[in-house]
Design goal:
Layout lengths: L2 H28 L14 H16 L5 H17 L34 H16 L6 H18 L5 H22 L48 H4 L16 H14 L3 H9 L9 H17 L3 H29 L4 H8 L19 H17 L5 E6 L10 E5 H14 L5 H21 L8
Antiparallel strand pairs: 1-2
């Protein structure tokens, strides 16, 4: 009595199975040349190690001032993303989205061939890293980099066939080669060898920057003419003119200087700590951009994201940081504005002293404010609903002897960084507010004007 229903169900199950296979097979045949492995199948821990070492290398390599550092991060980020983008669903290469990049032919994965995207990323990141420091990478930093690449590859190649390993590594290396060729034409190639870009004639009008320390020439005066990754990040973000220069008490410009003077004179202990925490002087830390990338790396680690999200996050931040320094430097040398310390000593108090050292370039606008403004918008888009609300503690400065600082919103973090330049006595308030404005506009452009993959975890 039971045998008939069982036989009936068995035949029915077989019929359903056969029908399903018949329906599935055409689809399978249609997609047989599509690689079904995904970038999100891989852990990005190996990639974080490169960014940790990039920070150390920038700190210890002569010539890597803030603009040069942001540029190095920029091309490392582009190369590592292009090495994994074909393994991210619905993702598009940056080749036809970045300024001038389409002139350089990137390699494409072979149809019907399998790739290990982590191995490709490892190879691309290591090679572009070397290219960015090509003539100045110290022997020790080079040894660490080579060891890092080798150790990563040993770990990542476990259980992977030799043909996939070779194909993936070669693909990543070719990506790095093309990105490096692209980098050579942006105006900043090998700028670390001559970061002051001499010769340059320093104007001597009363409103103009004057040396504030040992450097008699301003840093990288031609940087603003470099090619940005997105043209509109420079053409559509430039600030309005600053308050008209004046040494007369009560005028808007004089009041800007008085706010600096009053703030520094009455700084609280916390404000002094904030000024030093965000100073990120070159060769003392890995510059302001490095600090922001360290924050990104920490958040990515804590979020336990996949290689797909990490690769995309670094690409976004790299474009934003690179372009923020180009846009900021254009404004600095268009206006060539005097620094507060010079103005205050001339017109208010000859004995005035800043909390931190004044860097050797014009005031308007603040580089810190530009870069953190851009970075905050990238972080906000990646990890929040747009509000910027995100509770985290920045541990990235512990390595440089600072205490950790906690924040509940990326915008608040950006405001603190910008205000730190006022507390330090090295920027007028307008430098900071307008710098944030420029940076945030750049970050928004990167988030919205580039086609990024969605639902990446």
């Amino acid at each position: 009595m039971l045998s008939k229903p069982q036989t009936h169900r068995s035949k029915l199950s077989l019929l359903v199975l056969v029908s399903f296979m018949l329906l599935w097979m055409p689809s399978c045949q249609k997609d047989e040349f599509v690689d079904l492995s995904e970038t999100q199948d891989y852990d990005p821990d190996f990639l974080y190690k490169y960014y940790d070492h990039l920070c150390l290398s920038i700190k210890t390599t002569p010539g890597f001032f803030p603009p040069q550092a942001a540029r190095a991060y920029g091309y490392v980020g582009i190369a590592q993303y292009e090495a994994v983008v074909h393994g991210i669903k619905n993702a598009q290469s940056l080749q036809n989205q970045l300024n001038g990049f389409s002139a350089y032919k990137l390699p494409l994965p072979e149809q019907g061939k399998e790739y290990n995207w982590a191995l490709a990323s490892n190879a691309a990141t290591a090679k572009i890293f070397k290219y960015m420091f090509e003539k100045s990478l110290s022997a020790n930093n080079a040894r660490v980099l080579d060891s890092l690449e080798a150790q990563n590859q040993i770990t990542l190649m476990r259980g992977v066939s030799s043909d996939i390993i070779d194909r993936s590594v070669t693909f990543g290396q070719k990506i790095a080669d093309v990105v490096f060729e692209y980098s050579k034409t942006d105006g900043g190639h090998e700028s670390y060898l001559a970061p002051f870009q001499l010769p340059f004639v320093v104007p001597t009008d009363d409103y103009c920057w004057a040396p504030t320390g040992a450097a008699l020439q301003p840093l990288s005066p031609k940087w603003g003419s470099n090619r940005p990754f997105l043209s509109l990040n420079v053409s559509q973000t430039q600030v309005v003119p600053h308050a008209t220069f004046s040494s007369t008490p009560g005028t808007p410009f004089y009041n800007e200087a008085m706010e600096v003077y009053g703030t520094v004179t009455n700084n609280t202990q916390e404000q002094i700590e904030i000024a030093k925490y965000w100073a990120d002087d070159p060769f003392m830390t890995c510059t302001p951009a490095g600090h922001t990338f360290n924050i990104l790396t920490q958040v990515l680690r804590e979020e336990r994201v996949t290689l797909a999200k990490a690769g995309m996050a670094y690409a976004r931040m790299c474009i934003a940081e690179n372009d923020a320094f180009i846009a900021c430097w254009k404004g600095k040398y268009d206006y060539f504005l005097i620094r507060p310390v010079t103005y205050i000593k001339r017109y208010i108090d000859p004995n005035f002293k800043t909390v931190i050292g004044t860097p050797p370039f014009p005031a308007y606008t603040s580089g810190h404010s530009c870069e953190i403004g851009a970075g905050s918008r990238i972080l906000t888009d990646l990890f929040t609903d747009g509000s910027g609300d995100y509770l985290f503690t920045d541990y990235s400065q512990l390595q440089f002897g600072f205490k950790a600082r906690s924040f509940s919103n990326f915008n608040d973090m950006a405001e603190e960084c910008a205000n730190s330049r006022l507390y330090g006595g090295i920027h007028f308030p307008m430098d900071n507010s307008k710098g944030l404005q420029v940076g945030k506009a750049i970050g928004d452009n990167v988030n919205k004007r580039i086609l990024w993959p969605v639902f990446v975890r």
